[in-house]
């Protein structure tokens, strides 16, 4: 049990941007297919989406959160009906795309 707890602590320390808990409409595109979803947390580097599909980590996708401009992304992880997407854009570009919402998100050094 201690090992699982330390893994979570290690995982948190590796994050490059703080995350904000949200519940926002999201859309994930994989090739010619798109899937409606909900984002449950968000940062300038990525998001956690509720999506129970047989996808694999490493797949290139596009993501739109709250009807924003699409962000080129990569599936960083898939587990338990959720996926983690990592945005391919710089944090300042993501902040601009998200507008008012982006202004509430802090960057790696903030």
Characterization of the model:
The protein is α+β, with helices and mostly antiparallel strands and 110 residues long. It has a single domain (23-103), classed as Thrombin, subunit H, CATH 2.40.10. It is 23% helix and 43% strand. It contains 3 helices and 6 strands. It has helices spanning 2-14, 91-98, 100-103; strands at residues 20-30, 33-42, 46-50, 60-65, 71-79, 82-87. A 6-stranded antiparallel beta barrel has the order 1-2-3-6-5-4. The longest helix has 13 residues, at 2-14. Mean pLDDT is 84; it is low at 1-14.
Question: How do the helices and strands line up, and which of them pair or pack?
Answer:
Layout: H1 2-14, E1 20-30, E2 33-42, E3 46-50, E4 60-65, E5 71-79, E6 82-87, H2 91-98, H3 100-103
Antiparallel strand pairs: 1-2, 1-4, 2-3, 3-6, 4-5, 5-6
Radius of gyration: 14 Å
Percent helix: 10-25%
Discrete helix count: 3
Low-confidence stretches: 1-14
Beta-strand content bin: 35-45%
Strands of the widest sheet, in order across it, are 1-2-3-6-5-4
CATH superfamily: predicted glycosyltransferase like domains
For the record, the CATH architecture stands as: Beta Barrel
Report the CATH C-level class. Answer: Mainly Beta
Count every beta strand, where a strand is a DSSP E run of 2 or more residues. Answer: 6
Query: How far apart, in Å, are the first and last alpha carbons?
Result: 33 Å
H/E series, N to C? HEEEEEEHH
Shape: globular
What is the name of the CATH topology?
Thrombin, subunit H
SSE-based structural type:
alpha+beta
The total domain count is 1
Q: What's the average pLDDT?
A: 84
* Largest sheet: number of strands, sense, barrel closure: 6 strands, antiparallel, barrel
């Amino acid at each position: 049990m201690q090992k699982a707890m330390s893994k979570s602590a290690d995982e948190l320390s590796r994050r490059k941007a703080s995350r904000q808990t949200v519940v926002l409409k999201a859309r994930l595109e994989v090739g010619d297919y798109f899937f409606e979803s909900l984002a449950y947390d968000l940062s300038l580097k990525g998001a956690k989406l509720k999506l129970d599909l047989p996808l694999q980590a490493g797949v290139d996708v596009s993501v739109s959160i709250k009807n924003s401009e699409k962000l080129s992304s990569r599936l960083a992880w898939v587990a338990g009906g959720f996926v983690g997407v990592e945005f391919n854009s710089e944090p300042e570009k993501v902040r601009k795309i998200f507008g008012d919402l982006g202004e509430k998100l802090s960057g790696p050094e903030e």
